[in-house]
Amino acid sequence: MFGCDRSITMSSIVVSLSVSLLPLPPKPPYGISPLSSFSLMSSGISPPKGVMCAPFIGQVSIRKFLETGQIEQVLCDGENYDGSRPCRFDWVKLLRQECVDNNVTFVFCGTGQRFVKDGRLYKLECSIQSQQAHKSGMSFK
């Protein structure tokens, strides 16, 4: 399983500098071991796809990619380190709504170190960022 803090580029589709496609673990209906990517490719089944928006430091629209039906999950997380740029709750809500409109799983992994909600800047320690994201109720499915 992968964490919200890592992503790898899996496609030449460019959505934004802050977005990259990453593989999701195979689900039981595929009947293929998660450790056997060769079996997955040789079976003719395309691996599931997801989008990771991290660090989420600007408004992003991926609606046209979600509408293709090829994206199964979207994850977003703010930025974490000294000098991190803010993540805005309004951006999270807009991205989530695009996922809801296309019935795509959305996971708000973390707020990042600097999070703006209702015009107020919150400075959050790493230890509570994912907890605060979960409390927001933004995750879908």
Explain this structure.
The protein is an alpha/beta fold and 141 residues long. It has one domain (19-135). Helices cover 23% and strands 22% of the residues. It has helices at 37-42, 63-66, 89-101, 126-135, and strands at residues 19-23, 49-53, 73-77, 87-88, 105-110, 114-117, 120-123. It has a four-stranded mixed β-sheet with strand order 1-2-3-5. A three-stranded mixed β-sheet has the order 4-6-7.
Which characteristics define this entry?
141 residues; 4-stranded mixed sheet; alpha/beta; 3-stranded mixed sheet; 23% helix
Which SSEs are present, and which pair or pack?
Elements: E1 19-23, H1 37-42, E2 49-53, H2 63-66, E3 73-77, E4 87-88, H3 89-101, E5 105-110, E6 114-117, E7 120-123, H4 126-135
Parallel strand pairs: 2-3, 3-5, 4-6
Antiparallel strand pairs: 1-2, 6-7
The average pLDDT value, as a whole number, equals 77
Backbone CA Rg: 16 Å
**Can you tell me the overall shape?**
elongated
Q: Report the strand count.
A: 7
Domain count: the total is 1
C-alpha end-to-end distance:
18 Å
Helical content stands at 10-25%
Strand content: 15-25%
Largest sheet: 4 strands, mixed
Low-confidence stretches: 1-41
Instruction: For the largest sheet, list the strands in their spatial order.
Output: 1-2-3-5
SSE ordering: EHEHEEHEEEH
Secondary-structure class: alpha/beta
Given the structure, what is the number of helices?
4
Give a concise summary.
This protein has 141 residues and is α/β, with parallel strands linked by helices. It has one domain (19-135). Helices cover 23% and strands 22% of the residues.
